[in-house]
Structure formats: C-alpha cells, structure tokens
Amino acid sequence: MVKLGVNIDHVATIRQARLVMEPDPVFAAAIAEQNGADQITIHLREDRRHIQNRDLKILRSTIQTKLNLEMAASEEMIAIAKNSLPDTVTLVPEKREELTTEGGLVLLEEHKEMIAELKAVNIEVSVFIEPDIEMVKFAKKIGADTVEIHTGRYANLTDSKEIEEELIRIKKAAKQVKSSGMRVVAGHGLNYHNTQALVELELFEEFNIGHSIISRAVFSGLAEAVKTMKEIVK
Ligand code: PXP
C-alpha cells in the first residue's frame, strides 16, 4: 500500500512565532499517526526556524511509525543524525534565505562518504533530487537507498501541457529509480488537487506532504476552537 509521510514542520512554525510551548509538534505527530500517517517527517534546519533539537529528541522516543529527518548534508547534521538515529534521513539542499526547500539537491562525490556514515548506523538514506535521469544514476552510484523526487515544479505549474510534460519527466525518473533497485518516493507542494495524478503513475511507494495538510487542519479545526472559546467568554 502507498504510504503517507506527514511533515509537521508548520506546527512548529506556529509555535516559534510566539516562542511558547504550543502547538507542540509532538502532539501533532501522535494525532497524525492515530489517523493513518505511516511516517512523520521533520526538517531540522540550520537556522532552527521551526523544528528544534528538543522536538527531534522527544519525537525519536514517541513516534511509533517511522521518523524521517530531512536535513542539509553538513557535518553538524550528520553528527545529529548519528546521535538521534531517525529511521530515515533525507538529504536536502538548504539556503538560509529560502522560504522552503527550493530545487533538488545537486549530488556530489563528497556526499558518498556522508551516505556511508549514515548507513553504517542503520539509517536509510534518501536523497531529494529533481526528476533527472543523470542525477538518479548518480544517486545510485554514491549509495543512496531511496530517491525522493522533488515535485515542486510540477506543483507550481498551471499550464496543462507543461503539467503533462513534467509528469512524463517525473515518471521517467521514478522508473529509473525503481529499475536501479532504490525506493522511490515523492514530495513537495503536493495538495488535495495535484496528488492524485502522481498516485495514478503507480510508481511511488510514499508521499511526503506537509503544508497542505497543516493548512487544511487550520480550517477544519477553526469552528470547534471558536465555539469552545465562545463558551468561556459567555
Ligand atoms: N519533502 C521534502 C524533501 C521537503 O523538503 C518538504 C518540505 O519541507 C516536503 C517533502 C513537504 O513539502 P510540502 O510542505 O510542500 O508538502
């Protein structure tokens, strides 16, 4: 069955807006798991803008499904991963000034050693790359277990012909991942409208989705939240 990884970064984004205790991503992870999430994904960014070291530490001991840690391919992050032992590490590019991860990671020879270090402590290593055949081949060469195809471009397109073309590019890359013996997953910018077409390719084992789920949760929970506060002020 196709798996759903729920990215809970934006629960932490709301908390960090006030630097208080709530909403706690640990609570969000439990609710996501109770409602069918097969994996919880967090991105521990260098600038700690949302997820904090404390979240990683607690989530590692409370998550009952799988913990996927997205992180930059840096020495600091490799040390944190080896210490916290998530089930999966997804190597992503990271720029301080970006609002969210822009583009896939450009894999380099130097990533080979980092991947080996993580695999040596039994962490599955996924690389977040553009749907590009040559990059997929390089991912295999440097030892990645899994490829997460960056669907951001697909998600941002509005022209139906361009969407069709991008879907073909994604399909070719995903097939290449599978035939190379790696797991193939997808993520970024996926929402309640554009995910189905990717599911229908019948290639992806898993989808990692964050922003659209947390956005929807704000509205599906707002009525109850206002009613409850109204009861208090009445
Ligand atoms: N996969 C990866 C590797 C990501 O970096 C992100 C964003 O943190 C996601 C999936 C989820 O993207 P979105 O929040 O747009 O659903």
Total beta-strand segments = 8
Percentage of β-strand residues: 15-25%
Strand order of the largest sheet: 1-2-3-4-5-6-7-8
CA(first)-CA(last) distance: 48 Å
Number of domains: 1
Write the SSE topology:
Elements: E1 3-7, H1 9-18, H2 25-34, E2 39-43, H3 53-62, E3 67-72, H4 75-84, E4 88-92, H5 111-120, E5 124-129, H6 133-141, E6 146-150, H7 152-156, H8 160-179, E7 183-187, H9 195-199, E8 206-209, H10 211-233
Parallel strand pairs: 1-2, 1-8, 2-3, 3-4, 4-5, 5-6, 6-7, 7-8
Helix pairs in contact: 2-3, 6-8
The protein binds pyridoxine-5'-phosphate.
Residues 7, 9, 43, 70, 90, 92, 100-101, 128, 148, 187-190, 208-212 line the site of pyridoxine-5'-phosphate.
Structure description:
The protein has one domain: TIM Barrel (Alpha-Beta Barrel). The chain has an 8-stranded parallel barrel with strand order 1-2-3-4-5-6-7-8, surrounded by 6 helices. The protein is globular. It is built from 10 helices and 8 strands. Helices cover 48% and strands 18% of the residues. Helix 2 packs parallel to helix 3 and helix 6 packs parallel to helix 8. It is of the alpha/beta class and 234 residues long. The structure holds pyridoxine-5'-phosphate. The site of pyridoxine-5'-phosphate has 19 residues, from strand 4, strand 8 and helix 10.
Summarize the structure.
Helix content is 48%, strand content 18%.
Annotation keywords:
48% helix, TIM Barrel, 8 strands, eight-stranded parallel β-barrel, 10 helices, 234 residues, alpha/beta, binds pyridoxine-5'-phosphate
